Every structure is written in structure tokens, then in C-alpha cells.
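User: Sequence in, structure out. Go.
Assistant: Echoing your sequence, followed by the C-alpha cells.
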Amino acid sequence: MDVYEAVTSRRAVRSFSDRPVPREVLERVLATAVRAPSGSNLQPWHAFVVTGAPLADLKKRAAERLATGDPWDEPEYEMYPPVLRSPYRERRAAFGEQRYGALGIARDDLEARQRAAAGNWDCFGAPAALFCYLDRGLGRPQWSDAGMFLQTVMLLLRAEGVHSCPQMAWAKFHRTVAEIVAPPAELLLFCGMSIGYEDAAADRSRTGRAPLAETVTFVDG
């Protein structure tokens, strides 16, 4: 698979089969992904990969929290600004409309939307999950570095025929994740990532992207 194919075939898959991802595949991907760039080569990310019984335990604990109405953990960072300006507000709305529309969920059916969102904390059935942490003392540039690392992981997974779904949603259950992976206190959970082989019956609709002219400006002669 060439780079262009890896980029265009990568998408956030939300329905995985239970086929295990071989340990050697995960190790190969992560050993290569550390070549991702980072300012002054800080390599600020720390990834925990969870599979097997520990992942089953994590999913069980998360499901119990959802079932009992346990509120989300106190946020450790702001995922989105309190007020999204245009065009970001419209893009987010369009995503929600497409995502829930594909599931046949009406805009005003809050209960059904919550059920669909709950799939996040089951990793959408994936047999592997990665949790990306950063040191609390680092700044915005290092968060950018972590994003480049995560994108590199996702593209390498595509080269292995594996799919993924990055999920900030796990930051809402950071205490539960910590019960399983036991991170050092100085680390903060940025996001999770579900990893696995796509369910053959999964919906393969793709979310759109803004026209190039909206996000890129060429300055030339």
C-alpha cells in the first residue's frame, strides 16, 4: 500500500470484528511510528496498548459506569472551545448529521444518540486499544507532536490491513483507564484509539472534507 492509498483509505471505523490483531503487527507499527517528528526530538507521547483480559475488564468497567449513570470524569483539558465559530460550527453539525443519519437516528432522538455514543467505551468491538498520554508539564507544541505520532500509527496500521478509530471520548473516563494501565501521576490521558479489523457488515460511509480552497492558501508568483 502506498502512502496516498493509506491516507485515503484511513477513516474512523466504528464497527470491528473480534479477530485479534497479532502482537507482532502492533509492535512493528509502533516501533516504526516512533519515527514521527517532534520538536527537538522530545518524543512526548507515551502509549499504552491494551488487549485481551485487561481490555475486556476496561470495557466492563466503562459499561458499568454508563449503566449506573456515573458522571464523566472532571475534564483535564478542553476538547472544544465553549463557542465554536463558523465554519467549524457548521462542519461539526454536518458531521453529526451524517454520522447519526447513517445510523437512522433522528436529530432530536437524544436517547438513541447516547446509545450510539456509548459504543466508544466498548472500543466499537475492537480487540485492541491504544491510550496516548502526555506529560502534564508539556505545552501545545508537544500536543501537536503527539497528533503526528498518532496519525503515523493510523497510516501504518492501514499498511498492515488494520483499521482504527481515534477517540477523545476516553478522556471522559480517564480514571477508569488509569485503573487498568496505572500511568504515572505526571501523565495526562489525551485520547484512546480502537484498533482492529473492520466488521465486514460495517457501514462504510465517509465523512466529507472541506474544499481545498477553504483550508489551503497558495502564495506564489
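User: And one key feature?
Assistant: The mean pLDDT is 92.
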